[in-house]
Amino acid sequence: MKGGVVAVITILAFFAVVVKPGQAVTCGQVDAALVPCISYLTGQGDSPSAACCSGVKAVKGLAQTAADKRACCNCVKAAANKYANLKDAAAQSLPTKCGVQMDIPISRSVDCDK
Predict the structure, then answer these.
(1) In terms of Cα–Cα distance, which of 81, 63, 86, 77 is closest to 112?
(2) CA dihedral of residues 65, 78, 109, 19 (deg, nearest 10)
(3) Which PANTHER family has this protein been placed in (predicted)?
(4) pTM confidence score
(5) Element (H, E) at 65
(6) DSSP assignment letter at 45
(7) What is the dihedral of CA 32, 38, 40, 43, to 10 degrees?
(8) What string of DSSP letters covers 5-24?
(9) Integer angstrom CA distances of residue 44 from 15, 21, 87
(10) Which is it for the CA torsion 107, 104, 72, 44, positive or negative?
């Protein structure tokens, strides 16, 4: 039962981050998509969960234009800086582990304007 509730919440969170064309990407959308990744990124799991990878795919979907990519990058950077125990190696490997090619690096120190 608990797993079913988590699955429903994850699906609802995924649909909440879908953006209609012409709308700006918000950090709330990016944060909601990547929340399931926190345990992996802080070293509490060996691999990202299916919910985490769905969130990574959702962020990639949000970042369609150069402005969207910059906004997502800044949001990811801000989120990464909230967690002192974030593992840089896990963050950098996250897209690959989820099978997603990202144009947005997951890093605390990335320059999102480049």
Answers:
(1) 77
(2) -20
(3) NON-SPECIFIC LIPID-TRANSFER PROTEIN 2-RELATED
(4) 0.76
(5) none
(6) -
(7) 170
(8) HHHHHHHHHHHHT---TTPP
(9) 26, 36, 10
(10) negative
Whose tokens are 């997951």? That residue is 106
**Predicted pLDDT at 41:** 94
Give the chain's end-to-end CA distance (angstroms, integer). 46
pLDDT of residue 52: 97
Three-state SS across 25-60? CCHHHHHHHHHHHHHHHCCCCCCCCHHHHHHHHHHH
DSSP run (H or E) holding 43: none
Residue 104 confidence (pLDDT): 84
Report which of residues 55 and 3 the model is more confident about.
Answer: 55
Longest dimension (CA), the chain: 46
Here the tokens at position 38 are 């926190």
d(CA 68, CA 75) in angstroms, rounded, equals 10
Residue type, 33: A
